[in-house]
Write a structure and sequence with these properties.
seven-stranded mixed sheet, ligase activity, single chain, 21% strand, alpha+beta, Rossmann-like_a/b/a_fold, ATP-binding, five-stranded mixed sheet, RNA-binding
Amino acid sequence: MSRYNPRATEMKWQRQWDEASIFRAENTSTKPKYYVLEMFPYPSGRIHMGHVRNYTIGDVLTRFYMARGFNVLHPMGWDAFGMPAENAAMEKGTHPADWTYDNIAAMRTQLKQVGLAIDWSREIATCDPDYYGHEQALFLDFLEAGLVYRRESWVNWDPVDNTVLANEQVIDGCGWRSGAPVERRKLSQWFLKITEFADDLLDGLKLLERWPEKVRLMQENWIGRSEGLRFTFLITGRDEGIEVYTTRPDTIFGASFCAIAADHPLAARLATDNAELTAFIAECRRMGTSQEALEKAEKKGFNTGLTVRHPFDDTLELPVYVANFVLMDYGTGAVFGCPAHDQRDLDFARKYNLRVQPVVVPQDVPVADFSVEEEAYVGPGRLAHSDFLDGLSVEEAKTRVIDRAEAEGWGKRSVTFRLRDWGVSRQRYWGTPIPIVHCESCGTVPVPREHLPLTLPEDISFDKPGNPLDHHPDWKHTSCPSCKKPALRETDTLDTFVDSSWYFIRFTAPDSSQPIDMDAANYWLPVDQYTGGVEHAILHLLYARFFTRALQHCGHVSLKEPFDGLFTQGMVNHMTYRDEDGKWVFPSLVRERDNGALMRSDTGAAVEAGRVEKMSKSKRNVVDPDDIIDQYGADTARWFVLSDSPPERDLVWTETGIEGAWRFTQRLWRLVSGAQGSLVAPGTAIADPVSEDSLALRRVVHKAIAGVTADIEGLHLNRAVARLYELANAIGGCDVPQINPAVYREALESLVRLVSPMMPHLAEELWQSLGHKTLLAGADWPQADAAMLVDDTVTMGVQVGGKLRDTIVVAKDAPREDVEAVALASDKVMRAIDGKTVRKVVVVPNRIVNIVV
RNA sequence: GCCCGCUUGGCGGAAUUGGUAGACGCAAGGGACUUAAAAUCCCUCGGCCUUUAGGCUGUGCCGGUUCGAGUCCGGCAGCGGGCACCA
């Protein structure tokens, strides 16, 4: 028999699907909708196995829900702005746009070879002026709605490259490209008010039942809501105070110092005539970027000489320090330190010989016996040495202090979030230009909407350090839209996370003249199943949730949670190899010698296998999807990435694994296409009654249908694969002449249809070989016959004293007494009982019998 | 440091609400076919003992609940992930 030739076959069906526009989603339909989406790729140049896995998972769902009668939207686009394009421009001199569009073209071709059921008519690229022009309009909407503002904030500044660095570009305190020590600088930046929605984003998490618990928890921690007291310490001898925030107002009587951040305005004022303090503040600022690890451990402070008065005790004065561990961005930028009940404060107090007064004592310890030495006590207990709080629990004491502070007017109950507003300004070329003009007389003026899209200039140069938009000869020079006088454009561009915060909405109406077609958005959203890597658990997913709320606020959509179901898939890993020189070796170059040792196929040098790690270019443990598809075809690659490992866990790519998948591909081909001679015409009804063998086969088939269906719905794709192996084994093990031909056809057709979401090309080919004239991609999903799912008999285990001794076959739902009788009649069971008294017999219907002796 | 998750054969992994542990795949070993190889097919495959039959033991470790625990509870260890001077 001929072998299956994937290359020709796959191309043939891809063309047919394309010609039939079978994956095109309609914005109006009588069918229920289902929106499948995988996180869109950055066009880095070539797809990798992680992409293949990600998009195959989504593709299985797409084809499955299509077959189940849904109107399915499964689009693809490109997260096309970002730094790699600029890096390529600097290194190779290619224009970012050319580099990006070339990469998109290459990756589109590759993705098409995977045979994905994608509606390519909706393809978008975020670097397309049509897309980012609409994004600019949304930015202006947000501005009008008061969700955008501008303020100064600190950035990592590379003084050689004249550019702002992202945190990951700062390596050991130095710029990744220039190697120059990074400075902290204050720049005016645009912010989106995500904190406005902090409570709502937190509350919304509870309703996201189809999200992984882990991701919800990570977002919850990221938002970091806390409740506490905000109050002002009066500075002794001055007519001003220091506002502090605390979540432990109950420990107020244990306070022994007040600490303010290095960036606190008071610190700045005190530093004007204090060189030592100036030096200390400078040291704190360096800390953030440079010697983090070194300094992290040590709590340092600078005694300002000021003191503040304790709110409950006029006689008590607390010293005021500038401390390196207090953050200006959180709370009020100032705290009171209670060393006995906070480890950080304790370390600080020990260093500067400050009072350590325990005020919370564990329940079972006498107050007099309790002291704190090197470890702060943070557990529950009752209050002591605390005046009117003595004897109260921590919770009671918190409430009492806050109530009193509010009654006396010097403090307020306050909710604080760790979450900060989203800084979206980037000092780069390859991003969405921020549609703002800076005018000396009018201030910041929005670019009029009729001038959108505000496009990037094409004639730019990366010869000079810094932002090309900034030193472009004329781009930034314009006139003020308001007063018409000469003015300057904003030269910052938007964070690329903005681009990815609404692309899933644009997919619903990619050609709309408005940023969002509300009808289309409301029809398709929310995304029913969103799939991507867990590395986007916080930022991308939180920004998209915020963005959707902001769009709702501005009247663009009528929902606030964009993703109903979220699935985070695992990474694709591979064994690493090194040669004698310690150089990483590509797996495709590794060969096995006869004695089992590994060698390089090109040089013959010995190779040593290392750990299994995430596929990465730097370690060269990558397998190129193109090579795999060339050699085995897309179906085999798809099958392999779906088999064995549950999709949420890491997958280890192995050469033997892909070989196994390839063998199964061939086996299916032989099993189905080899049956042609013995088949009845398509659609032949199964005449009752059928033989025992035929009935048994039908039962297996229908159980497989039910099982695979449930597995795909539950995203247990590896289990679905295992069931399909079982079904193929069962069909292959049949004595074909003994099987009713219509039953055999049903078995083969079911197998082909169940396999089709995973191996769509092969399934299509086999469907045709079974005599069908229409595309399988448009066919219905098989229905399990409930009557075939129940057996007449069940096999039950029989335990004696909890140990399995025998299994018995009894009628399904047989009466308890009958089951007991059969169980007790078993030789093996009698031997195990061995004359002991039977105290009790537990019978769990259709499951197990346990005889207690 | 805090929070979360995981731990089942040589390997990846199955196992409804607690109910026959190891489905399915990979690897390994043996056999058939073949001049030979590839491909394919058949058999074995957690460990220990045993002639068959069978017995004992076994889901990271210790303990508990239960007629019955991979599954539930308490403690411990190891691995992985997230966050981190967040007051």
